[in-house]
Amino acid sequence: MLKRRTLMVAAAAATLLFSAASQAQYKDEYTVSTVLPSAFPWGQAADKWVELVKERSDGRINMKIYSNSQLVAGDQTKEFSAMRSGLIDMAVGSTINWSPQVPELNLFSLPFLMPDYAAIDAITQGEAGEAVFEAIKKRGVTPLAWGENGFRELSNSKLVIDEPSDLDGLKIRVVGSPLFQDTFSALGANPTQMSWADAKPALTTGAVDGQENPLSVFDVARIDQVGQEYLTRWHYMADPLVFAVSNRVWAQFSPEDQKLLKQAAIDAGQWEIEKSRGEVDDILAAIKERGVQVTELTPEQRQAFKDATESVYEKWTSRIGEDLVQQAQEAVANRNQ
Ligand code: X2X
After folding, report:
1. 182-206, pLDDT tens digit by residue?
2. 319-to-81, 101, 113, 240 alpha-carbon distances in Å
3. Contact of 46 with 65, CB cutoff 8 Å
4. Distance of CA 199 from the midpoint of ligand 1 (Å)
5. pLDDT digits over 254-279, tens only?
6. pTM over cut 0.90
7. CA nearest 138: which of 91, 176, 98?
8. Domain residue limits at 152
9. What burial class does residue 142 get, using C-beta atoms within 10 Å of its C-beta: 0-12 exposed, 13-18 middle, 19+ buried?
């Protein structure tokens, strides 16, 4: 009897010790990587997450944001690997930048897959979104919630673009994901991969004629001031943002704190998605005001771009996963409108 009691006391003491030890493992501060800083919706999404976590944990969990991809020396395509290996604890990252390591994330970059916001939501909030999250987790990073960079529109310094042949030979800066090379090559353009850090200088010197980014990025980064006078709203793709934690770091949090981090990410993501969608009309007006010539495509004109980029699906569907692409296409077809 006495022996049993001693054992129980010992077990209780061990539990106490263990939880004290795991508490002690918490870092004073966790690094959070982003590409765009607080002036952009992307940076604001990260700010909100950090703020909510601090508040809800009564200051126990502190996160510090490092923007402009500074933790990976400006190379945003290295962010995922750095998180996986534990060099970065957490991130709010674009699906584009993580797609070199997580092929499934190329789903969102398939041209003209998602015509509107309801289509994005149908994918992220449904089975396809869950499958994408599983793929991320399997590669070493725990995804918690979705945010949104936005529909990426095309700008250039040369001409109004409303049909594929207008892109003929145009030098376009694209992000460092090979799928974009294929999309712009299919359209007859001359794509050049470079990081965001290098993009604005390249536009300024005229090393490239055009670029593609969400309206909020075009606006805040003042892309019109570097000669990008023509903008085509072709809505060819949108990059969701993913709030995530390195698996190694995630395992160190107690189940309660995991829940807290996740719920805060969900709330921050919803807040940012609503905010950035709600700002698009004002941004558009401001851009026009500054003299940018904005071209809206008719459904027929959009279809011509879609037809011209069919080859991207042929090449990339098997890499992304046939089932996943089909699931996403069905989600889009059956979306609530
Ligand atoms: O590099 C870009 O174009 C940006 C900022 O939109 C991304 O990080 C995907």
Report:
1. 999 999 999 999 999 999 999 999 9
2. 19, 12, 16, 19
3. yes
4. 9
5. 999 999 999 999 999 999 999 999 99
6. yes
7. 98
8. 27-333
9. buried
For residues 146 and 241, the answer to whether their CB atoms sit within 8 Å is yes
Residue 91 near ligand 1, beta carbon < 6 Å: no
- The answer to whether position 5 is within a domain reads no
Amino acid at 294: V
Residue 86 amino acid letter: G
CATH classification of the domain holding 119? 3.40.190.170
Best mutation site among 40, 97, 212 for ligand 1 pocket (most ligand atoms within 8 Å of CB):
97
223 Cβ below 6 A of ligand 1: no
Q: Is residue 19 part of a domain?
A: no
Indicate the burial class of 14 (C-beta count within 10 angstroms; 0-12, 13-18, 19 or more).
exposed
* Spatial contact of 172 and 209, defined as CB atoms under 8 Å apart: yes
**1 falls within a domain:** no
